[in-house]
Amino acid sequence: MDHKAAPDVSPSRSTGECMPVVPVAKISPGYAFAKRALDVLISAAALVLGLPVWLLIGCLIKITSRGPVIYRQTRIGMGGLPFVFYKFRSMRDGADAERHTVEHLNTTGGPTFKAEDDPRITPLGKILRRTSLDEIPQLWIVLTGQMSLVGPRPPLPEEVECYRDDQMARLGVPQGLTCLWQINGRSDISFEEQVRLDLDYIARRSIWLDLYILIRTVPVVLFGTGAR
After folding, report:
1. Nearest partner of 198 among 179, 211, 214, 217, judged by Cα
2. Which end of the chain is less congested by CB atoms within 10 angstroms, N or C?
3. Residue ranges per structural domain of the chain
4. For the segment 32-75, what is each residue's pLDDT rounded down to a tens digit?
5. Residue 96 CA to chain centroid, in angstroms?
C-alpha cells in the first residue's frame, strides 16, 4: 500500500513527546470525498433527529449518578494526533483512578481493557453500553472530521505505548465509530484479532466496505452482541 509521511505529531512510546512514527495511508480522491460526505450526512442527521433522546439520556445520567454527563478522554487519532474523545458517562465519577483495582478482570489479552462485569459501570451505564448509546457524542467528533463513521477504534495513549511496530499501522487511517471487529464479536474477541481485522480493513477499504460495515453494525447494536 502506498503511504505518505505523517506529520511530526505521533506520541513517543517512552516519553509522550512527538515523533514521526505513523505513516498515513493514501486513498483515492473519490473515496476520500465519498467517505467524508457519508460521515457528514449521517452524523449531522443523527445528531439533529435524535436530539430529544440525547437530552433525555443526559438528564437520566444526571439524575441517577453524581458526576458530569459527558465523559472526556484523550485518544490517539490518525497519524498519531491526540484528540479529545467524548462519551456519555457510563461509569461512576472517578472510575479512571480505580482501574488498577479491576485490571485482573481484563479479557482482551492485550493493552486494551474490557471486563465482563466491571463494577465501576452504573446501572444506567450498562444499558447505554449494551445499546452503544454511550458512543453517541462521538458523532460530533465525526462531524468535525477528527473521526470517521468507519475505521479502527481510537486507542488510549498508554495503549499506543504498548503497540508493536506493525500494530502502529492502525493509526494510518481515520479512527472510527465502528469497524470490522465491532461486527465480528466486538469485545468478545482478543486484541490480536482486533488488530488483524483492523489491518484487513485498511488493506481493503472502500466506500462499499464502509457501507457494508455500517449496515452490519445496526443489528449488532440492536441485539447488543459482544457489548460490555
Report:
1. 179
2. N
3. 3-221
4. 999 999 999 999 999 999 999 999 999 999 999 999 999 999 99
5. 17
